[in-house]
Amino acid sequence: MSMLEGFKRARSVLEDYPEYWPPKEYFMHESKITKSQIDELESLIKNNTGEREVDSFITRNPVVLTIPLDFASTGHHGAWIIPKKSIRSKISNDIPGLIPDFIVGGKNSDGFTWMIVELKGIKNSLFTVSHDKVYFSKEANRGICQLLEYLDFCGKSQSHIRDILKLNDFREPNGFLIIGKEDEFNDSRKRELKASWNRSIKNTIHIRSYDALLRTCKRIYNSYNISG
């Protein structure tokens, strides 16, 4: 499919937008990924940028978050990227509010799939080594625990989230942590541990590097820019 055909498909959806779908303001389509966005992401990766810079880039270019949906084989009919919306107000000092980085939805022929996406820095590692043992790094552990809290609340409060965010088809989501770079996995123990995590926990929390995000951005962009 050409990029023009992708734009036409996205435009036709917007022109005949179903009322029961999530708010149109959050609608995205993977075909709208641009070369300049890919180049900027690649530059951020090369410069080992931190969480704040990455968050700023994604906030300005939310279409990039259609990529986690591709990892889950959904979103080809459309995607919805919802940034930094409170899903729980602060109740007390012991029960803080909950504001995920992004809520991401995708639709395919099987219906809607939802994810909570947590971003950590490109400069942050997924793992750390201490006394010859491999552990999740402080930032990775923090991201996983944040996602577990979001997922637990979402699972218990689906109707609440459907009401406050007007997501009629919201169901219990999966989590998605994006952190670090692939050169970390030149260490075979780290590579095997990450693969083991994604095999055993993949239906709850997926973990991917920014290199994987970039690579899939390029593949999708190229798929919409095949000449002829």
Can you tell me about this structure?
The protein is an alpha/beta fold and about 230 residues long. The chain has one domain: 3-Layer(aba) Sandwich (Restriction Endonuclease). It contains 8 helices and 8 strands, in the order H-E-H-H-H-E-E-E-E-E-H-H-E-H-E-H. The protein has helices at about 5-15, 35-45, 50-60, 65-70, 140-155, 160-165, 190-200, 210-225; strands at about 25-30, 80-85, 100-110, 110-120, 125-130, 135, 175-180, 205-210. The protein has a 6-stranded mixed sheet with strand order 1-2-3-4-7-8. A hairpin with a 2-residue loop joins strand 3 (about 100-110) and strand 4 (about 110-120). Helix 2 runs antiparallel to helix 8 (about 210-225). The N and C termini lie close together (about 10 Å).
How is the topology of this model organized?
Blueprint: H1 3-15, E1 27-28, H2 35-46, H3 51-60, H4 67-71, E2 78-83, E3 102-108, E4 111-119, E5 127-130, E6 133-136, H5 138-156, H6 158-165, E7 174-178, H7 188-201, E8 205-208, H8 210-223
Parallel strand pairs: 4-7, 7-8
Antiparallel strand pairs: 1-2, 2-3, 3-4, 5-6
- Report the helical percentage: 40-55%
User: Largest sheet, if any?
Assistant: 6 strands, mixed
Task: Compute the number of helices.
Answer: 8
CATH architecture descriptor name? 3-Layer(aba) Sandwich
What class do helices, strands and sheet pairing give? alpha/beta
Mean pLDDT: 88
